[in-house]
Description:
CATH superfamily: P-loop containing nucleotide triphosphate hydrolases
Bound molecules: adenosine-5'-diphosphate, magnesium ion
Strand content: 25-35%
Amino acid sequence: MLDIKDLKAGYRGIQALKGVSLSVAEGEMVAIIGANGAGKSTLLNCLSAIVPAGSGRILFDGQDITGWSAHQVARAGLLQVPEGRQVLADMTVRENLQLGALARGPRAAFYELDKVLTLFPILAERMTQLAGTLSGGQQQMLAIGRALMGSPRVLLLDEPSLGLSPLLTQQVFQALTQLHSEGLTIVLVEQNAHRALASTQRAYVLERGAIVQQGPSKVLQNDPAIIEHYLGSGQG
Length: 236
Ligand SMILES: Nc1ncnc2c1ncn2[C@@H]1O[C@H](COP(=O)(O)OP(=O)(O)O)[C@@H](O)[C@H]1O
Ligand SMILES: [Mg+2]
C-alpha cells in the first residue's frame, strides 16, 4: 500500500531524514517509534507532502506520488492526523468534521458522520461546541474523526497520545484498534513506545533520521536495546 524508498528530506542545514525505506501493506497497523527529534514528524509530513522529499521515492498503492501536492495526496486517500491535533478552534465540532469530508473528493465515502459519531460518542454530544473549548483528548478524537470523514485509505497519526491522560490515551488507542480491525491501514508515529508496540503488529525504530530496527512489535517489545532506550521506567 505504501512503499518508501531511500527517502531523504531536511530543512535549511539539517538533514532530518537520511535515506528512510519502509513499507506498509494494506490492512496493516504499523508503528514508527523514536525519540524526540528523530525525524518522525518529518517522515509523516513528507508522506502528506507538507515537507518536500529531497530525494527518494514514495509509492502509494503502486503509484509514484513523490512530488505531488498536499492536496493531491489527501485526495488520493493518504490522510494525516497532525501532531498537536490542529483542529479549527473557532469552528464547531460539526464544521470541523464537515471540512474533513472535503479531502475525500470524488472517492466513495466509507466513513460517514454517523460512523464517526459511533466511534467517538462524546463528539455527538458536542456537535455545536467550538472545537477550541474541547479537552485535549476530545480534540484528538475530533482530529481523528475529521481525517476519517475524508475516507482515508491510509491513516497517518502523529503522536496521538501526546499530552493526553492515560485514560484518554487508552480510549484513543481503542478507537484506532477498532478502525484497524475494520480493515483500515494505519501508520502510527509515537514517542510512547509502550502503547505503540502494544497496539501494532509491526514497528520501525527511527533514530536521527534513519531506520535502525524493524520487526514484529512483539519481538521489539522484548529486545533488550529497545527496552533500555524506549521502554525503560518513566517512558509511558
Ligand atoms: N520546520 C523545521 N525547521 C527546521 N528544522 C526542523 C523543522 N522541523 C523539524 N526540524 C528538525 O528536524 C529534526 C527532526 O524533527 P522531527 O521530524 O520533528 O522529529 P520528531 O517528530 O521525531 O520529534 C530535528 O532535528 C528538528 O529540530
Ligand atoms: Mg514529531
